[in-house]
Each structure stands twice: as structure tokens, then as C-alpha cells.
Amino acid sequence: MDGAVVTSLLVVALALVVLRSGMRVVNQVDRGVVFRLGKALPEYRKPGVTFLIPFVDRMRKVNVQVVVLPVPTQEGITRDNVSVKVDAVVYFRVTDPLRAAIEVQDYVFAVGQVAQSSLRSIIGKSELDDLLSDRERLHEGLALMIDSPAAGWGVHIDRVEIKDVQLPESLKRSMSRQAEAERERRARVITADGEFQAAQQLANASRIMSDTPEAMQLRLLQTVVEVAAEKNSTLVMPFPVELLRYFDRAAHRLQREEPRSDGDAGGTASAVPQPRPAEAPDPRV
């Protein structure tokens, strides 16, 4: 009787040990791929407690979180023959744990190598202006180039971004001079445009004042008011504009009358009879 009890206890203890050795816990961020006698099972284990057959099953956990992989700096020559150094970052995640565990040995390393080669290819196909200003299109092209082989590994590329573009110092100086010249050109154009508009407005104002003489007088009074607002200034009133205009009209009238008076004086002088010269005496008398 005692031997049977001891045997039962040993069997229960052995069963607990076997169960404990076969129990596994899969975290929320992982998926478990089970290999039974070296062959992968078609279904992966989801998060929670799972049981494996001791000495028969082996489980490999695959992380399904988004992986941020920095791409080392790649040096290349652009299509317009400019040497640049470009680095990027890749965001990807595992969508098929079975493929990620079976199809590729190390999917993180594989994605990194594909990203480096794709980045060098993009550098050679793009111009410098595209690398500096049209990055969104380059990001989409990089994502497509990396996602093509990664899709067969059960990996999905979420986003690829170019972080920095390093230019040679000589090119930086040339671009700085170009930008400075462009800003100076814009400043000159804006100044000339302002002067042109001011000249147009002054011309329009002068035409209005010439058609309306009272406008000149009102402008004069407005200027007097603006000057009189200063307490430390002495105001000297000029001649009224109407008085100066009166003298101007009088001068023009005199200029028109001068040729007529000269013609009348010439006609009167020709009408006066001239005295006849005295006759010389006859020498025979």
C-alpha cells in the first residue's frame, strides 16, 4: 500500500515536471513559431500561455513591433555629377511570423542591406535638387524598392525617410553665393517696382492737380498743417499759389501781345513822308 502511494506521488510529480517544462508564455509583442521535430507548424502561437511537447517541440519567438532601423551613411554621385553623403531610416514590422522565421535567416540584417543598396541606387538616379527639395517622392521610391524583396520575407515597410544630405564644402559655398545673389536680385526688383509705382501715383496726382487748381492750394494748406504740428519749427508762409498763377497768366498774355505791337510800329514809320534832298546850284550862273 505504501509502495503504491509513493509510486502515485512520483507519477504526479513527474507529470507536473513535464507540464512545467512544456509550458511557455508568449508576450503581447511576440508571436511563437513552433517547430515539431524540425518542421514548422502552420499555425503560430498567439500571446498568452501555450504548451509544447517536451523534447519534441521547439518554439521561436518573432517580434511584431515596428522596428526603427537606421541606414548607415552612403556616399554616391548624383545624376548631375555631385558627390554627396546620404543617410536614412527605415520603419518596418513583421506581418507574417512564419515567413520571417523560415524564409530569411535574419530579417533585420536583410532589410538593412537592401535599404543600403536601394539608397545608393536612388542617389545615382536622382539630381541634387531632388535630394534637397523633392524628398517625398524619393521616400516613396525607396519604400517601393525595399518592400519588393521584403514582402517575401513576411516584412512590411511602413516608411523610409532620408535624414540628412551632406554636401562638399565648396558646393555649400557656391550655393550660398547663389542664394545671396538671388536675394539681392529680388531686393532690386522690389525696389524698382516700388519706385515705378510711386512715379505712377505721382504722375496721376500731378495730372489731377493740373486739372483742378484748388487741389494744389489744399495740398499746400495740408503741408502747412503738418509742419505747424512741430513745436520747435518756424513756419514761413510762401506766396499764395493763386497769386503766382495770376502772374504766370499775365506774363503769357504779354508775350502774345509783343509781336502785334512791333508790326504796328513798322507800318506807321513807312507812312511818314521823307524830306527831299536839296538840289545843287548850277555853276554856269
Radius of gyration: 52 Å
Helix content: 55-70%
Q: How big a fraction of the residues is strand?
A: 15-25%
Rounded mean pLDDT is: 79
Morphology? elongated
Describe the strand arrangement of the main beta sheet, using strand numbers. Answer: 3-2-5
Structural class: alpha+beta
General description of the model:
The structure is a single chain. With 285 residues, the protein is α+β, with helices and mostly antiparallel strands. It contains 8 helices and 8 strands, in the order H-E-E-E-E-E-E-E-H-H-H-H-E-H-H-H. The chain has helices at 2-22, 97-102, 107-125, 128-133, 135-150, 169-211, 213-228, 241-271; strands spanning 23-26, 30-36, 39-40, 48-51, 57-63, 67-77, 83-94, 155-166. The strands form 3 sheets. Strands 3-2-5 form a 3-stranded antiparallel sheet. A hairpin with a 2-residue loop joins strand 2 and strand 3. Helix 3 crosses helix 5 and helix 6 packs across helix 7 (213-228). The longest helix is centred in the middle third of the chain and has 43 residues, at 169-211. The N and C termini lie far apart (215 Å).
